[in-house]
Structures are given as C-alpha cells and as structure tokens.
Amino acid sequence: MNIRNFSIIAHIDHGKSTLADRLMQATKAVSAREAKAQLLDDMDIERERGITIKASAVTVMHHHTPGAKADALEENDDAAPEGEAAATQADTAGGSPLYMLNFIDTPGHVDFNYEVSRALKACEGALLVVDATQGVQAQTVVNAYLAIGENLTIIPVVNKIDLPSARPDDVAMEVEQVLGIPAEDCIYVSAKSGIGIPELLAAICERLPGPAAPRFKQTRALIFDAIYDDYRGVIVYVRMFDGQLKVGDKIRMMGTGRSFQITDIGKRTPKPIRVPTLGPGEAGFIVAAIRDLKDVRVGDTVTLDGDPAPEALAGYKPPVQMVFCDFYPATSEDEKGSDFEQLRDAIEKLSLNDSSFTYFPVHSEALGFGFRCGFLGLLHMEIIQERLEREFETQVVQTAPTVTYQVALRDGTTVDVHNPAELPPGGTFEEIREPICKVEIITPNENIGGVLTLCTDRRGEFQSQQVVGESRQMLTFHIPLAEIIYDFYDKLKAITSGYGTMDYEVIEFRVNDLVKVDILINGDPVEALALITHRSTAERRGRLLLRKLAKQIDRHQFEIPLQAAIGGKIIARETIKAFRKDVTAKCYGGDVSRKRKLLEKQKEGKKKMKNVGTVNIPQEAFMAVLDQGEE
Q1: Which of 199, 282, 353, 354 is deepest in the core (most CB within 10 A)?
Q2: 487, burial (CB in 10 Å: exposed 0-12, middle 13-18, buried 19+)
Q3: Do the beta carbons of residue 322 and residue 381 sit within 8 Å?
Q4: Which residues, given as ranges, of the chain have pLDDT below 70?
C-alpha cells in the first residue's frame, strides 16, 4: 500500500482546519451528514475562538490512478466503511492504487509553534496553505522555513479563491518571491466550496514522497503527541519508522526506560477505529495502561522490550517557556487551603494534556499559596487560564506576566530569574541579561513609518527590510521580549488597520541596564507588583503604575501612600486619601476646644489604624500592571 504522511501548515485563519474537513469529506472518511466545521478541533475554546490549539492526526484512504483526471468532489451521504473491511473493499474497487493518507492539522498561532515542529518531524511532506486575499504572512514564512529545515516536500496551496477579493496569481508570485517555491507549483483551491480538492489529492499522491525504507529490523516509533484519558490512561500517538507494533507487544520507552504492554492499537479516521498492527510509515495511537504522563515523553522512541533498537530516533528539543506568571486561588482567607488543593489538582490534570507549560508552588505574603507557571507565549497563558476556569471550575487570581532574566552572580555562576521578587539583592550580582527576540513584521507600505516608530519606542533595533509583493514589506527587528509580551501586537494591529502580522523567536540573552522597581503599599513591598525594567523607563513605568493602582484600590479609613522604589530610593509616589467622617457634627455650639479634642482623638485613631490596618488589594490592581498604555 502507498503511504503519504503530511502536515497542513499556515498562518492563522488561512483555512487549515476547513481544508482538513474537506479532505476527509472528499476521501469519504466522513459523510455529508457527519461533516461539520472544524471537525478535528475537539475543545470548546478551539471552536469558539476559531483557532486550533492542539495538532490532530487523521488517517484516510484514497484511490488515485496516476495520470487520470481527478474526479469532481462527490457528496456522499453514506457513512464510510470502517477498519479492515474498508481496506479490503477499497483495494479491489475500480483497480486504482490505494493510498493511505496520514495528515496532521496544526495550529497557526506563534505560541503553538512547538506543536507544528512536532508534527513536521512525523511527516515527509507539508501542505503550505496561503490565503488568496491576504497573501504570504509572518507565520507562513516561519512555518515554510520549519518545513524546509526538516527537508520536507512542500505543496503550496492557494486557498479561498472563490472570494470576490481573491488574487490567486499575485499570491502565487508572492510565494515564489518570498519562499523561492515556483509559482506554477501552487494549487488553487477553495476549502469551503470544494473547488480544486481532487487536484490537490492527486498532487499529494504524485508529488509527496513515501516513507523512507526502514533502517533497522527492530521496531522504532516516534511519539509525536500524548493525551490523557480518565478511563484508558495515557493515549500515545506514534509514527512508525521501523518494524511493527501489535496488540500484546511489550514495549519500552527508550528515553524513560519504562516498559508497558500494549492493550489497544488504533487510528483516527477521524473516528477512532481498532487496527491489529502498525507497520513502517504508518501513524496511529497505542494504549498500554500508562497511568502517569511522566512515563511518556513526547519525542521519545518506542521499541520492543525483548528486541530493543540499537539507537533512538532524533526526537525534539524540549519547549522553552518564555513567559511566566503566578496563579493563586481567588477566595477568602479561611477557604484558601481547600481551594489551593483544587487549583493544584486542576493544574496537574491540565499538564497531562499540555506538556508545554511548567508549574511549581510559590508563596506570596499578599496572596498566600499558589503556582508559578511558565508558558510559550501570552495567548498560551490566556488559554490555560480560561481552561482552568471553564473545564475545572476554579477561580484564579493571575499576576502580571514576566519574562526570564539571566543574572550573572559575582562568583561566576548564572541563575535564571522568572519573577522580579527572586532577583538577588543589589551588589551581589554583576549583570542582568534579558531575552532578545528576532521579530518579523509584514506590513502594508503606507504603515511602515508607524511600525518603525512603534518598534524603536520599544527599544527595537532595525535589522532588514524585504519586499513582499507590490503593496507590502517585511521588516526585521531585534526587540527585548519584555517589550513585546504586553500590548505590542494590539498596537501593531491598530497602526496597520489589522493588516500587519508578526512572528517572533527568542535568539539570545543580552546585557542591559535593567533595574528592579519595588511597589510599596502603605510602606510594605508587594512582591506580586514588582517589575524589572530598563533604567531609562523605570520612573515613567513606576509613576504610571501608581496612578493606575490609585484608581483600583478603594479608599480606607486611613491615608494610603503608594510608592515606587529602586533599592532604597523612592522614585514616584501617589496618595489615596482617607475617608473623612465628620466627628464634630454633634457639636452644635459651645467651646471650640471640644471640637479640637474630637479631631485630635480622630487623628490618633487614624494613626493607630494605619499601623495595624491592612490594605485590601483587588485583582484589578494586579491586572493594572498588564496595561502599559498611556493614560
């Protein structure tokens, strides 16, 4: 049987999931009755936001006669035959060669780039989807280079050609200009209406290479994903390279050294179906009563326990978390304990299905016990918080996100600091290094001035400029990650009227004149509000933050000073005035000394209250740190 393994890659909203839906319909994997938009996006958040978060692997069968004209896309109301019966029936139908197509629908957002790189390792080819109205965008370029880096064969697909504003020929020329892929190689399709899908299926069968010949007779399979199921344990998605796996085999994970017995093998078609074996080049899932996700590492090699392979497959580099924030249970003090347990259970379960975020417990004077979590980016953080609140019904207080800094100590060692509160005291370290990103921005020509201003305001260094088609250019900058993670993307969209796109990757850590700004409320530093910033912007950032805090914190019975400090030096101050209760209202005349006595008594009471009283800080105050915009 002919096997083709490929991924569908593209910028956000260029039509990957719709194309996957149409490929499944065209190969009769789903009937017209079962078909629905975003069929492979299982999570509610994916369907609501219209984005793909987890890559999904699917196996479909397709008949293709080389050289024959592709048939038109048929609507088929009958459900597809399943399993081996389907394969037998398919092999004999019409005498056409049968192709097994294993494809992976991947996310488009930069934060989920790790999912894309994992998917590409399991493939020999890639469909690079480009929107016929928007053309080549930032993630298109990045994903294309990821595929080229893995030596994959790329088929460029120009999608949405049925839209009135589509310009497929211009977009095909952009693909040639920017990526060096010949324009005539592009296949024009409309994933929504099905135009061009038969031609695309023919190109997949004819242009993409089959799996390479096995290198060893021993079994080797690459784990490219793993999900947790409450009833079956960990379900491991594998791509076979050598040998085969069957039910009853005792397998060994070469990285962790753990052994398990296979109880079930299957494929998603897109419904899960059981198969007796998985052979070279095939992709599928295995169930082996694995209870703990720590026993499974994505990128590990599966081999047979009795006859292990001499060497493991290349695997993946572990994901690097770049954005960190704290999650605390949002409850009253007396319930903190039980809610902390609930939050811990929720985060543990969530980490089983998403191995790209990290967590460890922390304690804050202001907020109690919680978790410091690391994410690949800001959208990743937002998705995790939303899943915690919706899927696990936990209420969380989230602190402002921070990036990782490298601190060189005087003894020659280097430590990573994920939180400003962890920064060693001044004088004990030589220098602070911050992460620098290579940022590629594709923008219309008329907005180049605004984009240049935005980037230089954020301490960006201009690197290069490249023409993309007639009306757009790609600008490359080096910008500190700390300047990007807040509202940079929103500002870029505003400047370019929504037409600008960006991609970023961390390239190095660079020494800079960075300082820690402590925020003191009523004289006490609040760890969760501390920030690390460049010395030139420290006073402005501190003053802006205090103004926002003054609006968020309610007035108390006593005056509350808000201060920003670098070391022992106060650089900014705001004051929240106390409530004024008219204690002299009952004095309707008589000696003025009676009024003075009452006012003095009130003053003493306020002074005492200021010493023992606590300031309630609402969550909005912590979120105010996020918004760096000017008033």
Answers
A1: 282
A2: middle
A3: no
A4: 1, 29-56, 64-95, 107-115, 118, 293, 315-318, 331-338, 352-355, 365-367, 426-427, 556-558, 579-581, 583-585, 588-590, 606-631
pLDDT in tens, 563-575: 888 877 888 888 8
Rounded CA separation 631/547 (Å): 9
Phi then psi for 152, rounded to 5 degrees? -90, 150
Contact, 350 vs 384, CB < 8 A? yes
The span from the CA of 200 to the CA of 183, in Å, is: 15
Q: Hey, which bits of 275-348 come out as E strands? A: 277-278, 283-287, 301-304, 323-329
220-304 and 515-624 agree in CATH topology: no
What architecture is the 323-400 domain classified under in CATH? Answer: 2-Layer Sandwich (3.30)
Please report, in angstroms and rounded to a whole number, the separation of the first and last CA atoms in the chain.
Answer: 65
Contact 197, 73 (CB under 8 A): yes
3-state secondary structure of 352: helix
Q: Residue for token digits 């921005």?
A: 441
Residues paired with residue 525 on neighbouring β-strands, in sequence order: 520
C-alpha–C-alpha distance, residues 408 and 283, integer Å:
46
Q: How far is CA 564 from CA 61, 417, 483, 517, 530, in A?
A: 64, 21, 20, 6, 9
> 220-304: which CATH architecture?
Beta Barrel (2.40)
Domain 405-512 sits in CATH at: 3.30.70.240
**pLDDT of res. 76:** 39
Q: What angle do CA 358, 364, 366 make, to 5 degrees?
A: 135
CATH number, domain 515-624, options 3.40.50.2000, 3.30.70.2570, 3.40.50.2030, 3.40.1190.20: 3.30.70.2570
| Strands 187-188 vs 153-159: parallel, antiparallel or unpaired | parallel
Q: pLDDT tens across 20-53, in order?
A: 888 887 777 666 555 555 454 445 554 455 555 5
Task: At 399, list the tokens.
Answer: 């602190």
How far apart (Å, rounded) are the C-alpha atoms in residues 444 and 189?
A: 25
- Please enumerate, as own/partner, the contacts of 316-320 that have beta carbons within 8 Å and a separation of 24 or more: 316/117, 316/118, 316/121, 319/114, 319/355, 319/356, 319/376, 320/376, 320/506
| CA–CA distance, 226 with 224 (Å, rounded to integer) | 7
DSSP tally for the chain: helices H, then strands E = 15, 32
Q: Which two tokens stand for residue 429?
A: 């370290």
Q: What is the pLDDT of residue 114?
A: 64
Q: Where are the alpha helices (DSSP H) in 188-275?
A: 197-207
Strands (E), 481-619: 501-512, 514-521, 524-525, 531-534, 560-566, 569-576
C-alpha to C-alpha distance for 587 and 584, rounded to whole angstroms: 5
What is the residue extent of each domain of the chain?
2-207, 220-304, 323-400, 405-512, 515-624
Tell me whether strands 125-131 and 153-159 are parallel, antiparallel or unpaired: parallel
Structure tokens at 533: 């910033």
Domain 2-207 has CATH 3.30.530.20: no
Q: Which two tokens stand for residue 138?
A: 């930032």
Considering only CA atoms, which of 575, 512, 584, 524 is closest in space to residue 546?
575
Task: For residue 92, count other CB atoms closer than 10 A to its CB.
Answer: 8
